[in-house]
Each structure stands twice: as C-alpha cells, then as structure tokens.
Design goal:
By secondary structure, the chain is mainly α. The protein has 13 helices and 5 strands. It binds tryptophanyl-5'AMP.
C-alpha cells in the first residue's frame, strides 16, 4: 500500500512562484509514489475577509492552476475543503486538545493579526487547529509545504501525539514536514530579507503564475540586487541567492552551472536571461490554465469526484475519533 501525502493552498489570491516552488513543485515529484490529497483550503481563506463571488472564483482558478501545473485528478485526490464537512467537525474535537498558549506562539497568527488588526477573529487564532484537522483526517506520512508552514505541522504532530496518548492507541499517523532544500523560503524580489507573499503590499514583491511576459520582464528588471556586481550565491548575497534559486528551481539548471554561465557578466545580462527563462516556463502553464478555466463542466466533474473520494476517507476517520472520544452512538 502506498503511503499518503496531504497538502493545500488557500484560494485567497493569485498563486505566486513562491507557492509553486515551495509547494506544488514538490507535489509533482511525489504524486506517482504517494496516495496524494491536494486540497483547496477555502475555510482557511475566510479567516481574512473575502468577497464571496471572488472567493468562489479564486477557488476555481486555484483548481485550474493545480491541473495546469500537472496535478492529475485520476491519480490524486484534488478537492475543495468546504466540500468535506469533516474538516470543520474534527477541528472542534481538536480545539479541546489544544492550549491557548500553543496558538498564541504561532508566527503566522502573530503576523496576520498585525496585518489585520481590525479583524483579529477567533478563526484566525484557531487556523492552525483547522490545519491539523485537514492533515490528520487523512493519516498522511508527509506534508510537503514551504518552510513557513513547518510550525503548524509541528502543532498537528503534538495534537496527534496527545490524542494517541489520551486514548492509548495509534489513532493518528504522525505527519512529517517535507520541504525543499533550496526554495523552501522564496524571498521577495523587492526585499530579499522577507518571504515572497501575496499580502506583501507591493506587486514588485512577487511574480504571479498569471503575470504576462511584459510584467514578468519588468518585475525581474526591478528586482533588488546586492551591492557588488558578481552573479554568485552566498550568505553575503541574499538578493542574488534568491534570484539564482528561483532561476535554478524553474529551469532545473543548478546554481553552480548558472554561476558559470554568467561568470564575467553583469546583473543586466543575468536578469535578461532569467526573464526569458521564466517567460518560457510560464507560457505553456498559462495555456493549460486557460483550457481548464474554459471548461467549467470538466472542472466541476474533477472537483466532485475529488470531494467524493476525500469524504469517504475523512468521514471514516471522524467516525473512528467520535467512537473513541465518546461521541455519536
Ligand atoms: P498558503 O496558501 O499561504 O501557501 C501555500 C503553499 O505555498 C508555500 N509558500 C511558500 N513557499 C516558499 N516560499 C514562499 N515565499 C512561500 N509562500 C508560500 C506555503 O508554505 C504553502 O506550502 N496554511 C497553509 C495552507 C494549508 C495547508 C493545510 C497546507 C491549510 N491546511 C494542510 C498543508 C496541509 C497556507 O496558508 O498556505
């Protein structure tokens, strides 16, 4: 029997290359060897105020990007979180096994409550518990994500261990964080000290999978560089390290080879080459994306099938947990 994988992305905006490199690229490598569950986590997205019509549209867009990037709904289970009620139900049980102090320590919660000071809702606080439910419902061995999610996976492991101990049995498999060696934390193009993020405030921070060739070229041209002029990665060169990592992850050429290729050349040549490579990489993805977006019936079929498969697994798990905890008949 294959081991399981679970991961997800919020439909809270457009996908950027940080999401692709940190998460989706890894998924593609595991899809053949793991029984995979790829979720579109819309319940997580509403912890920040969303326009209803836009959220629904973003959910479909994200599903289309999953498919365009190479998620195969025949091999894997691709589904929308709110189509599987067990996620919210399991969250309630897990809430009673999670301490306030644990959630207060979560970095993402601290960051987001600063960003959304006018709406620090209970859902934002409870977000990591919902994420633990997402994961533990499927008993996955691995959770491939970017480094920013590592702390949440540790919490999921703690909740799983606590419940396994409380009920004296292996109720849950302990999931492992899996991240890229390079690219677990893609940094902002405008600030290599902070991670690339949809909520960065400036569009010069990120490249979206939906960006046109023109925009990609402009964004790379404006990307911050280091003070010297050498195309090289290293601890003393955060900006070039980030650009070289992105370039390398998208083309498959190692950073060492890219450094050789650009030896003796300046940042101008490097950026032109990088923009060309990125545009060439994006073009076929964007074509496929358009095909899926233009066939809503097929997308609906894929999501319905996914919801059915996910519900079967999740309901069984929820039932087991209810039994053990003393809920239900
Ligand atoms: P989200 O939607 O913010 O991001 C989706 C994925 O992209 C990764 N990522 C990055 N990787 C490298 N560099 C970056 N700059 C970068 N920015 C984002 C994230 O680590 C993530 O893998 N809480 C999650 C969604 C979630 C989830 C889950 C993930 C909900 N339930 C269960 C795994 C399992 C989140 O907000 O991701």
């Amino acid at each position: 029997m294959k081991q399981r994988l679970f991961s997800g992305i919020q439909p809270s905006g457009e996908l950027h290359i940080g999401n692709y490199i940190g998460a989706i690229k890894q998924w593609l490598g595991f899809q053949e060897s793991y029984e995979s569950f790829f979720c579109i986590v819309d319940l997580h997205a509403i912890t920040v105020r969303q326009d209803p019509a836009k959220l629904r549209e973003q959910t479909r867009k994200l599903a289309s990007w999953y498919l365009a990037c190479g998620i195969d709904p025949e091999k894997s289970t691709m589904f929308v979180q709110s189509d599987v009620p067990a996620h919210a139900q399991m969250t309630w049980v897990f809430n009673t096994f999670t301490q306030m102090g644990e959630l207060q320590r979560m970095t993402q919660y601290k960051d987001k409550s600063k960003q959304h000071a006018e709406n620090i809702n209970v859902g934002l606080f409870d977000y990591p518990v919902l994420m633990a439910a997402d994961i533990l419902l499927y008993d996955p061995e691995i959770v491939p994500v970017g480094e920013d999610q590592k702390q949440h996976i540790e919490l999921a492991r703690d909740i799983a261990t606590r419940m396994n101990n409380a009920y004296g049995r292996e109720l849950f498999v302990l999931p492992k964080y899996v991240g890229q060696k390079e690219g677990a934390r893609v940094m902002g193009l405008d600030n290599p000290e902070k991670k690339m993020s949809k909520s960065a405030g400036s569009e010069w921070n990120y490249i979206l999978l939906s960006d046109t060739a023109d925009v990609v070229a402009k964004k790379i041209k404006r990307a911050v560089t280091d003070t010297d002029t050498v195309v090289r990665a290293g601890d003393d060169k955060p900006a070039l390290t980030n650009l070289l990592t992105i370039y390398s992850m998208l083309t498959g050429t190692s950073i060492a080879d890219l450094e050789k290729q650009y030896a003796g050349k300046g940042y101008g040549d490097f950026k032109t080459g990088m923009a060309e490579a990125m545009i060439a990489w994006l073009a076929p993805l964007q074509e496929k994306y358009a095909i899926y977006m233009n066939d809503p019936a097929e997308l609906d079929r894929a999501l319905s099938r996914g919801a059915q498969k996910a519900n079967a697994v999740a309901q069984q798990k929820l039932h087991n947990v209810y039994q053990v905890v003393g809920l239900g008949r």
